[in-house]
Each structure stands twice: as C-alpha cells, then as structure tokens.
Design a protein that fits this description.
- The protein contains nine helices and 19 strands.
- By secondary structure, the chain is α+β, with helices and mostly antiparallel strands.
- The chain folds into two domains: 249 residues, Zn peptidases (Aminopeptidase), CATH 3.40.630; 109 residues, Alpha-Beta Plaits (2-Layer Sandwich), CATH 3.30.70.360.
- The longest helix is centred in the last third of the chain and has 17 residues.
C-alpha cells in the first residue's frame, strides 16, 4: 500500500469512539516485524507496537483511531474516502487518520534505526480518555518501555501545512461555586437574602479577568464564567442559592491554588462553596530539545517553512505523556475542518506528513 491507499482504507473503517473499526488488528498485521502489545480495557482498544533496531533512544508516534460521530448534512459518505475538487473527504481525514496513516506507513518503510521505534494507538481519545493512552502509559512504565520522545500526530497546522507544531498545551481548571442565600417572597425582599444581589456587584471583578500575565508560550490564564443560574423559574420567589460555573485555561503560572485565592478574594464575606476539578494539566516541551530541533528541520526540508511553536488550541493525549518527563510535541495536517461536516484534507498534506515523519526517523541518531 501507498500512504494514500492506507489512509483511504482507514477512513472507510467506521471507528466512532470507542470502536476501533478493526484498525488496531489491521495495523498489527500490517507491521509483522514489530512486537504488538494489546492493553484493551473494557470496550476500549489500545495497541503499543514496537521494534528495537539498536541500543539508541526510543522514539514513539502516538495517536487515536477513533473519530467523533459523523452527524448529518454531508455531501459525501463520511465513511468513504471521496477524492474530489483537490480534497479527500471523510470523517477523520484531519482528526486524525491522516496522522496515523502517515506514521504507520513511515514505520513500515523503516529499515534502519538507531534505537527503538514504536507506535501508541487508542480508540478512546475523542471520548472520556479514561481507558486509552493513560492505561498504555501505565503498562509501559511498569514494564520499563516508556519512550524518550513522542510525536502525537494531531492536526496542528493553521493556514498552510508546516506552519505550526504544538510544543505545549494550557491546562483546564473547572470551577463550581454555590452561593448561599435565603429564600423568600419577592414582595418582601427585606425578609430574604437574594444570592443574585450578592454576586451581581462582584461579577465585574471576576468575569473575563486575567489571573496572570502569561509568558512567551502561553496567553494569560483567564477566568471565564460559563453558567449562572438560580431560582425556580417563577417570578414571585427569590432564590435560596445561586450556582455559577467557570473555566480557566491555565498557564504554568496559575494553578488551582491561585484560582481558589482569586475566588476567596472576590467572594469575601459571602457564604459560598467552591469545588475545583482539573480537566487537563499544563505542559510545555523545551524547544531546544532534540525532538523539537529535528522535527523543525524535517518540516523545513519538506515544506520550506520554519514552523511556529504554538501552545494554542484544546487538549490531546499529549497531556498524559508530558508529566512522565517525556519530550512530546504534536504535528499533523491542517485543522480547519476537524469535527465538522465535510471534514477534508489534501493528498499532498498526507504525503508530505508521511515524508516529514520518514525524515525525522532517519535523522534520529
């Protein structure tokens, strides 16, 4: 198979989370000279497949074969790779079967390598991500198989292929505030304590406020209120309590501690409860590492572009890899149609991504 033939085959495999569409078994058979380890958990399928060529460093390519539901309104069958108007259409073309096809084909074509080359694949990235990459990493740690560097082939480019790699991601802190009041008749406000009145004058000092000034790689951590509700949907009863939800996409400067202190300062004197949960953790890979230097050179060789080092966007499974002290970056095709109807990419982007990965593997000394 060529990389495009492989890519089209993968698109035709319906693999909505947590279904792998049979792809992990196919990839195992496609790489017969690699040692395959399955770490399936409940209905989630996971594959770690590797080959030790020499005693050098361990380079891993990671990704997911699962896709979000196709939805309705497509101009083509979302589970048929349709090539027209200069694009290849299908669910997962960008996110992220293009990346998976590119590194699987690159691994298959590798004849010489200085160390260990591996692939880590899951069918649980678009879902809860509880039984996917996390479980494989636990297995690898227990069995002394953790890689030295990882490329997650998520779609990263913005305006043109090769213009950006992700060297980090902001964390995500979710917050839930309950402000206590005293329910009463709306006609007798003096006999009640309305939590809406309590929070109203304080919102200006909270909503949209930056909790830090950011740094070279991250924009400021912003306190974003996402939901406020109170009452019983009637006009004559003042509410007993008010619930407010917020999110902070945090930098390395701001943690849950700073968020708690910010809330305490702004709600001083009120009877309230605060609960915080960490949706994901912040990470940033040193841009002077071998991984970043080499992927930069490989991209420039193929595209002529020097990629921007970005930390923008949402989360990926790289958030589970970085805390283990592993150098990790993300690089893939453009991301302008991910999760959308008529998701698409180009033949050239997939072929160029495959070439970048081949060069990176060849450079790994």
């Amino acid at each position: 198979m060529s990389v495009i033939e492989l890519f089209k085959y993968m698109i035709a495999c319906k693999s909505e989370t947590p279904d792998d569409g049979g792809l992990l078994e196919f990839i195992t058979d496609y790489l017969p000279n690699f040692t395959a380890i399955r770490v399936d958990v409940e209905d989630v399928k996971n594959l770690f497949i590797y080959k030790k060529f020499g005693e050098g460093e361990h380079l891993c390519f990671a990704g997911h074969v699962d896709v979000v539901p196709a939805g309705s309104g497509w101009d083509t069958d979302p589970y048929e790779a349709v090539e027209k108007d200069g694009f290849i259409y299908g669910r997962g073309t960008q996110d992220m079967k293009s990346g998976v096809a590119a590194f699987v084909q690159a691994a298959k074509e590798t004849e010489n390598f200085s160390g260990t080359l591996s692939l880590l694949l899951t069918s649980d990235e678009e879902g809860d991500a509880v039984n996917g990459t996390v479980k494989v990493l636990e297995y690898l740690k227990e069995n002394n198989l953790l890689p030295d560097a990882v490329v997650v082939a998520e779609p990263t480019c913005e305006e043109e292929f090769g213009d950006a790699i992700k060297v980090g991601r902001r964390g995500s802190i979710n917050g839930y505030i309950t402000i206590k009041g005293k329910q009463g008749h709306a006609a007798y406000p003096e006999k009640a304590v309305n939590p809406v009145n309590l929070i109203a004058p304080r919102l200006a000092g909270m909503a949209g406020v930056d909790l830090d000034s950011g740094d070279a790689f991250f924009s400021p951590s912003k306190f974003v209120i996402t939901d406020i509700r109170a009452g019983m949907q009637v006009t004559n009863v003042t509410p007993n309590e008010l619930k407010m939800m917020f999110n902070v996409r945090n930098t390395t400067i701001t943690s849950q501690k700073e968020v708690s202190e910010f809330v305490a300062k702004n709600l001083d004197g009120l009877d309230y409860e605060l609960k915080l949960s960490q949706g994901s953790y912040t990470f940033c890979t040193n841009t002077d590492t071998k991984l970043v230097r080499n992927i930069d050179m490989a991209i420039e060789k193929v595209t002529g572009l020097k990629p921007r080092h970005s930390t923008a966007g949402g989360t990926s499974d790289a958030r589970f890899i970085a805390p283990l002290g592993i150098s990790v970056i993300e690089f893939g095709v453009k991301n302008d149609t991910i999760h959308s109807v008529n998701e698409r990419t180009t033949r050239k982007e997939v072929e160029d991504l495959h070439e970048v990965f081949k060069i990176l593997i060849d450079m790994w000394r």
